[in-house]
Amino acid sequence: MSDWYKPLGSFAIGVLDLLYPPHCAICEKSLEAHEFICAECLTQIERVNPPFCRCGCAIHESMDICSDCASRLWYFDQARSYGYYDEENVLGKLIKAFKYGGERALVGPLTDFLVEISAEFRSQLEAVTFIPMTRRKERERGFNQAELLAREFAKRLKVPAVAALEKVRETPPQASLSGPERLTNLEEAFQLASQPQCVNIVLIDDVATTGATIETASRALSEGGYEKIFVLTLARVKTASDRA
Ligand SMILES: [Zn+2]
Ligand SMILES: [Zn+2]
Q1: How far is the CA of 236 from the centre of ligand 2 (A)?
Q2: Ligand 1 midpoint to CA 244 (Å)
């Protein structure tokens, strides 16, 4: 946890500590300088544990792929998530604080999670990209949380961050739709924004709900010429495929 504050200079940290004495983003307990979540809250994050299916779910030891992957193909090669998302759990609260609560300093610790789960593909990564928002949506929010994560991740791993995709039309929130509607909702929502300069890329998003967003974006990357697409998300929503 000690390097979470690295993106800021030491002067900035000193000033910030005076203004905002560090406290846990979840339980508000006061902390040693430069930490964002206490050790106790950190251990409460429900991790997605190996063995993993290629889609990122926690598969049963006796299986190679989950029942979902047995009946379909994905445009991405491998997906991984750090933990499970729930509105009320620790990871869910951290993501919401980052996304809607203005806690942009959380980009450091949240990127630590992504770096940790990227270990098995790290040697193959050539570039990092993110799920884009439409320009209008991004203006409204002021930032794209997936882009902040991707840029920080790229800095840590010393690989280029690229805006590979653009979102060309607004779509209703995925959470408001049923399963089949979620794929058609996103049809042709993403387009390649720049020509590939490499063949392997990692796509970053905050939460994978049904996988429809990462799949549609991966399809645009694949059709645009990327050959190997890895997907990293902070969290995934638990599905029937996840081992209990
Ligand atoms: Zn805490
Ligand atoms: Zn699977």
Answers
A1: 12
A2: 26
Using the mean position of ligand 1's atoms as its centre, give its distance from the Cα of residue 31 in Å: 9
How many structural domains are present in the chain?
Answer: 2
Output the CA 192–ligand 1 centroid distance in Å: 41
Rounded-to-integer distance, Cα 119 and Cα 141, Å: 31
Whether residue 122 is found in the same domain as residue 159? yes
| Residue 53 belongs to a domain | yes
Quick one: DSSP state of residue 242? S
> pTM of the full predicted structure?
0.88
The answer to the question of residue 156 being in a domain is: yes
**Closest ligand by atom to 57 CA:** 2
Provide the domain limits for residue 109: 48-236
In a domain, 244, yes or no: no
Per-residue pLDDT of the chain (244 residues; tens, 9 = 90+): 334 444 444 444 445 555 566 888 899 899 887 778 899 999 999 999 999 999 999 999 999 999 989 998 899 999 999 999 999 999 999 999 999 887 888 999 999 999 999 999 999 999 999 999 999 999 998 999 999 999 999 999 999 999 999 999 888 877 777 777 877 778 789 999 999 999 999 999 999 988 889 999 999 999 999 999 999 999 999 999 898 7
Q: What's the CATH code of the domain at 147?
A: 3.40.50
| Strands of the chain, DSSP E | 78-84, 128-130, 165-167, 190-192, 200-208, 228-236
In the reported structure, the alpha carbon of residue 94 is separated from the centroid of ligand 1 by a whole-number distance in angstroms of 11
Ligand 2 midpoint to CA 144 (Å):
28
C-beta of residue 126 within 8 angstroms of C-beta of residue 159:
yes
